[in-house]
Amino acid sequence: MAEGLNVAVVGATGAVGNMMIKVLEERSFPVSSIKLLASKRSAGKKLSFRGKAVDVQELTEDSFDGMDLALFSAGASVSRKFAPIAASRGCVVVDNSSAFRMDPNVPLVVPEVNPKALKNHKNIIANPNCSTIQMVVALKPLHDRVGIKRIVVTTFQAVSGTGQKAIVELEEQVKAWFQGKPIEKKVYPHQILFNCLPHIGSFLDNGFTEEEMKMLNETRKIFDDPSIEVCATTVRVPVFYGHSESVNVELKGPLSVEEVRELLESAEGVRMVDNPSAAQYPLPIDAAGSDLTFVGRIRKDPSVENGIVMWIVADNIRKGAATNAVQIAEILLRENLLKK
Ligand code: A2P
Known about the structure:
By secondary structure, the protein is of the alpha/beta class. It folds into 2 domains: 5-128 and 321-334, Rossmann fold (3-Layer(aba) Sandwich); 132-315, 2-Layer Sandwich (Dihydrodipicolinate Reductase, domain 2). The chain is built from 8 helices and 13 strands. It has helices spanning 15-26, 76-88, 130-145, 164-178, 210-223, 257-265, 284-287, 318-334, and strands spanning 5-10, 31-38, 46-49, 52-58, 69-72, 92-95, 124-126, 148-157, 229-236, 243-251, 270-272, 293-300, 307-314. The structure holds adenosine-2'-5'-diphosphate (A2P). Adenosine-2'-5'-diphosphate binds next to helix 1 and helix 4.
């Protein structure tokens, strides 16, 4: 343990899993051995960790023997089956899927917002939805100061959030368009190139999508405040990396635009980019590759008392997924919350 942890990455060949490996390297996370796991299809493939080729192995029930920590990003059904197996063998799981997020026994954690929730973990910790993470990072200082009553949010989400196959689909549609060939679609129900799809996750009986309801339920759980109202519209846009959000927040008390700026300037994990007259505001192209949450276009909402509007952008694969998971692991290590 002193020399490092035995770490498994589940879904290592995917968009988030790959980034988890990179973020572990970048942040010099103390890894003594790494096990890269994916489906049978990928067994034998090679990925690189710290300059060395590592074989991808098929995920099985025995994969977690001797492992201290597992970062999961292989979808909810894989997590539902294998995370409890890992946890029962003493391996702490940080799970990027939606499988356990709303389980009352599972902490749902954004390190800048609710790190204390990690204290009572039972070997499974959930990483929130990408759109929720960046929104709560930016809203946390406002919530701490005056409280949040209601949020109306519209998202503009990158295709990488759907996984590697969606990145390939957008690339293929770009090529087909350029070559004048028919545009094929496999991942999304409509062409994503030059389009916006107000459809992320399945539609529910109330007319909202799963993604939209995640933003409501997860925000309440992370802020530990079931009174917060959230009305979300989530939209897939033809961007490779970086989710953008128009967030309209109704606060419980007054805060001037200047006060919001001051709060955000010193907020952990936040960078303000808010100089519209010089065309400076957060852009997904600029946020891609960063671990920060970018906030701009801060203004007063004239249509409601105590309303603030802002534009929030972050790299969905990094802060929205891989980096958040590794930051959780760093706290677990620092606070001696591994190997109970
Ligand atoms: P594989 O590449 O072998 O299919 P993405 O979200 O980018 O699509 O990536 C999903 C990740 O989850 C990939 O690493 C994928 O591995 C992995 N995965 C999908 N299904 C399974 C499964 N049944 N068992 C293990 N890993 C899986």
